[in-house]
Amino acid sequence: CFCRELQTTEYVIVKGSYIRAGDNNGRTVKENEAMNKEAVGAFQKLPMVMPSVDILHSALRKAKMVSPTKGIPNAAKRERNKGAKQLDTLMKELAVKLRTYFENFPDKKVLHPYERSLVELTLGDGRYEEVLARVDTLRKRVVSVGKEQASLCAKSLSKRQAEQQLIEGMNKVEEIFSQGGKAVDDLMNIAKTLRAMPVVDMEIPTLCLVGAPNVGKSSLVRLLSTGKPEICNYPFTTRGILMGHITSSFQNFQACVTDTPGLLRRHDGDRNNLEKLTLAVLSHLPTAVLYVHDLSGQCGTSPSDQQFAIYNEMKERFSDHLWLDVVSKCDLLSDCPVVFVTEDCNFEDVELAKYRRMGPEGALHVSVKSEVGINELKTKVVELLFTQSARI
C-alpha cells in the first residue's frame, strides 16, 4: 500500500506550489486554487509601485543608452536602426512596468470577502477597478504609439530624417505617458493604503470590540492589548480597523484585539463607511464579540432609545458569535441612571428599565479610570479567546 501510494499520487503546480491532484478531503485542484485565492493576506503581496515620473525617467535613460546594431556601414541605415531600437526599448520599458502592475494586483472578485469589503469601503465602490483599467489603457496607448513611431523611424529616407523622427517619437511617447501617468500615481497610493490595512490571521482568535460611538472601546483596547488607538471624548474617534495583540507566554497563547468604529441606530443603507467596516469584521471574520455599553450618559448616545436598540439588533444578527457584555465607566453610574430629555422611554418595559440601570444580564461593570473590574475582565477575555481558539 505504501509503494502504491508513492507511485500513484499525482501532483500539479499551482502558482509555484505543489498541490495534490485529489487530496484526502476530495477537493479538486480547481477547488484548492479557489481556496488559495480566498485566503487573507493579499494586500501584503501587492507589488511596489514606482511614481510615474521615476518610471518615465528610468525608461528614457535606458532607451538612450541603446546603440545601433554593429556592422551597418551606411550612416542612414545605422541611424534608422538606432532610432527604431531606442523607441522600441522606451515602449517596452514603460509597457512591461504597467503590465506587471496590472497583472499583479488581484481581481477584486477573488479576494477574501473581508478584504473585498475593505477595498470597497476604504477606496469607494468601483475605484479599485477604475484605476487598474486606466493603467491598462495607458499601457495599450504606449504600445500603440511606440510601435507606430518606431516604424516611422525605420522608414526614414535619410540620417537627418531618422534623427528628427527619433526625437519626435520620444516626445510623443513621453507625452502620452505623462498625460496618463496619474493612473500610476493613483495605483501607488492605493497600494500604500491597502498595505497599511491590519493583517488578519484566520488561525488566531480575534476579539472585536463593538458598541455605540464614544462608549470607551478604544480605552479598553489599550488596556487589554498592545494596540494604541487614539482616545478622545467625542464620537467616531476610531476612523478604521485598529488591532493590538494579547500574548500569554506561559500558556503559549496569542490573540488579536480589534477596535472598530461605533454603530448608530439606523438601517444598513444609511450607515456610513466607518460603520460598514465594523459590520464587515463581524460578518466575514471568525471573531468573538466584546460589546461595550455606556449607561453614564457621557457618550452622547442615550441608553434607552439608542444603545438598547443597537445592542438587540447586533445580538440577534450575530448570535453565532461568542459574546461578552461590558458596562464601561461604571464609576460614573449612580443609583438613578441618567435620563435624556430626548429619550423615548417606555417605563413599563421591564427589560428596558433593567438595561438602563444595570446593562444586559451578566454584563461586567468596569472602569478604566478607577480600575474597577479590570482584572476580572482580563480573565474573562482570555477565557473567551481560548474558547474561540478551540472553535477555530
TrEMBL record:
Gene3D superfamilies: 1.20.120.1190, P-loop containing nucleotide triphosphate hydrolases (3.40.50.300). Keywords: GTP-binding, Nucleotide-binding. It comes from the Eukaryota. Residues 206-264 form the FeoB-type G domain. InterPro entries: G_FEOB_dom, GTP-bd, NOG1_N, NOG1_Rossman_fold_dom, P-loop_NTPase. The keyword Iron does not apply. SUPFAM superfamilies: P-loop containing nucleoside triphosphate hydrolases (SSF52540). Residues 274-331 form the Nucleolar GTP-binding protein 1 Rossman-fold domain. GO terms for molecular function: GTP binding. It holds the Pfam family FeoB_N. Residues 43-201 form the NOG1 N-terminal helical domain. The keyword GTP-binding applies. PANTHER family: NUCLEOLAR GTP-BINDING PROTEIN 1. This is OBG-type G domain-containing protein. It comes from Genlisea aurea.
